[in-house]
């Protein structure tokens, strides 16, 4: 009786055309591998018609990244899969791009390189459309792919110059793998800039170790790579607020090592360019940490010989600090005087230009604290035999703010530089410098004629006194020479006859 009842029940159709990979019937066998990835075993008929879902071993997709993720054939296009599977395909493609090939041999693995490049471009387009969802597995796969492709050890530097960094007259070196690296950097930038990125989740993978390796890449000799890194690090600093103190400390350590140890680094200009915008965002009053960064990192950066490579960015950072707190102008000028070059005329020109920018922002009270040593140094620059240095020093008087500071303190400043101007008028070889000297003297005459005349009389008295001392010294030496030439040397040498013995035993 039971058999008759069961025979009348409708049987399930065996037509496989009614199934697809999106809905597998309950007759299929479900297996769970040790890596935590659940896979579905279809019949041979399903496997021949549908190839969307791919079984991938744990050796290719680690459990830490692919846990709970259905692995999809990475060679498929995003257009060929359903919306539910695009996220899994995104992770599969990221893991496929973790393979690094040797680009120095163009004939080797050319097919794999082209496939990887095409896959990276697909990933960039997918993220650009906003379709990607950066979950824990996706962020882990992204950070792993970027780490494997970007983080590397640079070859030893073979530059001829010993000053470190790229010299201004040298051609930059370009990385042969840039065609791939550029796309990886583009993908990393779009990941960091993604509007729906959960920073609390991403910071677990974009951690301190990741940031340190990223900062190491700033020593790349390829300027294109450093430019990409500059943009990425700036976005990270803006988005990951929790990492800001660590980034500032890490950059400070790079500067310390460059200034006090190696004097070799290619990315100081880019790092300073980032910090130029960072400093402009500091709140007032400045934290003590920020002031320490100025005194211990930025000001000592004036010391290396290669300062010309990054001096423009350095000046901008210094000016931003003074804009935040004008009282720091005195500290900056003291630092400039400490590291003022003596034999490097080009470096001296840069220092005078930076000094003028600082003086434009200094207050009268702060200027009075530093004006005596400052104008002693400017007086030396006025007398420089290098005509460009002498010209640049004279042109400070063309700045209205500087001239106003000098006018308010002319009783102190004019006596400091008047002697230098007089020496230029009498001895300097360059006609342009002589003309500028006459202009500065005329400015002083118009400012305070009595003070100038008093300085001139004092200078004449000092010259007369020095001439008298020099003449006296000459006559003294002349008498000594005459006495030595006419008086015979002593021949009678008194020799002791009785030596007194010491009564005390030593």
From TrEMBL:
GO terms for molecular function: protein phosphatase regulator activity. One of its GO terms (cellular component) is cytoplasm. SUPFAM superfamilies: ARM repeat. Keywords: Cytoplasm. It comes from the Eukaryota. The keyword Cytoplasm applies. InterPro entries: ARM-like, ARM-type_fold, PP2A_B56. The keyword Cytoplasm applies. One of its GO terms (biological process) is signal transduction. It is found in: Cytoplasm. It holds the Pfam family B56. Belongs to the phosphatase 2A regulatory subunit B56 family. The B regulatory subunit might modulate substrate selectivity and catalytic activity, and also might direct the localization of the catalytic enzyme to a particular subcellular compartment. PANTHER family: SERINE/THREONINE PROTEIN PHOSPHATASE 2A PP2A REGULATORY SUBUNIT B, SERINE_THREONINE PROTEIN PHOSPHATASE 2A 57 KDA REGULATORY SUBUNIT B' KAPPA ISOFORM. This is Serine/threonine protein phosphatase 2A regulatory subunit. It comes from Tripterygium wilfordii (Thunder God vine).
């Amino acid at each position: 009786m039971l058999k008759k009842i069961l025979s009348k029940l409708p049987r399930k159709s065996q037509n496989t055309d009614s199934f697809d990979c999106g809905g597998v019937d309950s007759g299929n066998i479900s297996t769970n591998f040790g890596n935590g990835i659940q896979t579905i075993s279809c019949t041979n008929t399903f496997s021949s018609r549908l190839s969307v879902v791919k079984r991938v071993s744990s050796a290719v997709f680690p459990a830490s990244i692919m846990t709970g993720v259905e692995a999809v054939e990475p060679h498929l296009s995003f257009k060929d899969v359903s919306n539910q599977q695009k996220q899994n395909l995104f992770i599969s493609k990221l893991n496929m791009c973790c393979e690094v090939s040797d680009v120095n041999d163009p004939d080797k693995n050319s097919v794999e390189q082209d496939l990887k490049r095409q896959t990276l471009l697909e990933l960039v387009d997918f993220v650009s459309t906003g379709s990607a969802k950066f979950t824990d597995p996706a962020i882990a796969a992204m950070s792993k792919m970027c780490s494997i492709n970007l983080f590397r050890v640079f070859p030893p530097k073979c530059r001829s110059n010993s000053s470190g960094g790229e010299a201004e007259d040298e051609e930059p070196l370009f990385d042969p793998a840039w065609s791939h690296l550029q796309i990886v950097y583009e993908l990393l930038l779009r990941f960091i800039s993604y509007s729906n990125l959960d920073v609390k989740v991403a910071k677990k993978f974009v951690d301190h170790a990741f940031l340190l390796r990223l900062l190491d890449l700033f020593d790349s000799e390829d300027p294109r790579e450093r430019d990409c890194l500059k943009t990425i690090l700036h976005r990270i600093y803006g988005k990951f607020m929790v990492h800001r103190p660590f980034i500032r400390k890490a950059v400070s350590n790079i500067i310390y090592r460059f200034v006090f140890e190696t004097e070799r680094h290619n990315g100081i200009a880019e790092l300073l360019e980032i910090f130029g915008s960072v400093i402009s965002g500091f709140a007032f009053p400045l934290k003590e940490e920020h002031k320490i960064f100025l005194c211990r990192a930025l000001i000592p950066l004036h010391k290396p010989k290669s300062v010309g490579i990054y001096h423009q960015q350095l000046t901008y950072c210094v000016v931003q600090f003074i804009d935040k707190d004008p009282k720091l102008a005195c500290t900056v000028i003291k630092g400039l005087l400490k590291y003022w070059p003596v034999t490097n005329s080009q470096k001296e020109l840069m220092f005078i230009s930076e000094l003028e920018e600082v003086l434009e922002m200094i207050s009268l009270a702060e200027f009075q604290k530093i004006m005596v040593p400052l104008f002693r140094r400017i007086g030396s620059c006025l007398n420089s035999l290098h005509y460009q240095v002498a010209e640049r020093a004279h042109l400070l008087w063309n700045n209205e703010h500087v001239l106003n500071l000098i006018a308010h303190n002319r009783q102190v400043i004019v006596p400091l530089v008047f002697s230098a101007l007089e020496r230029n008028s009498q001895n300097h070889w360059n006609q342009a410098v002589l003309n500028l000297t006459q202009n500065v003297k005329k400015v002083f005459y118009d400012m305070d004629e009595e003070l100038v005349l008093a300085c001139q009389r004092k200078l004449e008295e000092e010259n007369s006194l020095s001439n008298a001392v020099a003449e006296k010294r000459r006559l003294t030496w002349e008498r000594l020479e005459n006495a030595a030439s006419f008086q015979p040397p002593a021949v009678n040498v008194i020799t002791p006859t009785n030596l007194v013995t010491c009564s005390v035993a030593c």
